[in-house]
Amino acid sequence: MGVAPGRLTARVVAELVGGRLEGDGDLPLQRLAPLDRAGPDALSFLLTSRYLAAYRHTRAGAVLVPEGLSGTPGGPATRIVVPDMSTALPRAATAFQPPAPRPVGVHSAATVAPGVRLGERVWVGPGAVLEEGATVGAGTRLEAGAWIGAGVSIGADCSVGPHAVCYPGTVLGDRVILKAGAVIGGTGFGYLRGAAGHIRVPHHGQAILEDDVEIGSGSCVDRGNFDDTVIGQGSKLDNLVQVGHNVRIGARCLIMATTGIAGSCRIGDDVVIAGGVGIADHAVIGAGAVVGAKSVVFGGGRIEPGAAVSGYPARPHRAFLRAQAALYRLAPVAERLAALAEGTGDDAAPHDPPSD
Predict the structure, then answer these.
(1) How many CB atoms lie within 10 A of CB 40?
(2) Which of 245, 282, 317, 351 is catalytic?
(3) What is the mean pLDDT of residues 86-95?
(4) What are the boundaries of each domain within the chain?
(5) Residue 256 C-alpha from the chain's centroid
(6) Which run of H or of E encompasses 183?
(7) CA 156 to CA 148: how far, in whole Å?
(8) Using one digit for the tens of pLDDT, what is the confidence trace for 223-233?
(9) Is the domain defined by 5-96 classed in CATH 3.40.1390.10?
(10) Contact indicator for 256, 271 with CB cutoff of 8 Å
(11) What is d(CA 195, CA 208) in angstroms, rounded to the nearest whole number?
């Protein structure tokens, strides 16, 4: 951003984020903070109308406000009205915490094999290993302990985190982020049952991550066996996500933590998969679908484009909620039936009087 955090004012922030200033442009701002924890030295942000109560009571010196809520009464006198919060807020955050200076070069404790090609402004951290024939694009960072296999191709301005692994057959586009411990291009879990036991199927396909993909810590993306595993442009995977061999994930998908996607699944563009979802092999999820947390999509199942599903097995979300509500209504009935069966309920028939 080119501005030291200590010199930020409301006017400077408004210029940086492309917003319209209302109030005191000379107000000094030292930090960015949520509405409920901001003080007079802080810039805060109103994301949606859900936070209007906090907005009206915040002590923040200034607030980023979306255009649609600019007329809201109350709140700080100094506002920065922005047309698009999704771009304004990251810019403001970067202004208050600019990136640290980046080292360039190859650390003395790194291992770079012959035939490796490094672009300009590359950083290879201590303990990182690049095997023969690997290619690393300009501006990419390989952090401590990263391992890059033979022939791996990494694009420009990527970030490969500490102890992340790219096996042979991995191809990363530009601006790809691999967080610590991510494993890309490992052999998939593919076996055939034989007389002598389980026989591993060779994996000769690639693991291709297109531009602007992000892979969370501890997540694994297996290479294909005879096809490729592909994650589309701009898709983001959370921590501890498993992507099996031959899976194809479209563009701009969001996949949350502890989701497991079995081999040969097809997932369209703009799909959202919440945490803990299980997707069995050869399932197809249409573009724009939303899969609720802890849901299970059975093997070969199909979710239509734009659908919202949840449950076990995954079904339309409203149908799942109705089924759950019915179960809750049945619970007291089941308890009463059990009591009647045991003869302890209020309606239990009285015992016959003893005969003379």
Answers:
(1) 13
(2) 245
(3) 94
(4) 5-96, 105-315
(5) 5
(6) strand 183-186
(7) 15
(8) 999 999 999 99
(9) yes
(10) no
(11) 35
Q: List helix spans (H) across 62-184.
A: 85-96
Q: Tokens for 161, please give them.
A: 């985190």
CA angle (106 as vertex; 104, 109 as ends), nearest 5: 135
User: Where on the phi/psi map is residue 349: left (φ > 0), alpha (ψ -120 to 50), or beta?
Assistant: beta
In which element (H, E) is residue 273 found?
Answer: strand 272-273
pLDDT band at residue 80 using 50, 70 and 90 as cut-offs: very high
Residues in the chain: 356
Residue 150 contacts residue 131 (beta carbons within 8 Å)? yes
CATH code: domain 105-315 is 2.160.10.10
pLDDT, mean of residues 96-110: 91
Q: Tokens 């759950």 sit at which residue?
A: 324
Over residues 330-352, the pLDDT tens digits come to 878 888 888 888 876 555 455 55
Paired sense of beta strands 42-45 and 129-130, if any: unpaired
Spell out the residues 6+ positions from residue 335 whose beta carbon is closer than 8 angstroms to its own. Answer: none
Lowest pLDDT segment from 204-213, 264-273, 331-340: 331-340
Are 104 and 121 in contact by the 8 Å Cβ rule? The answer is yes
245 is catalytic: yes
Whole-model pTM over 0.90: no
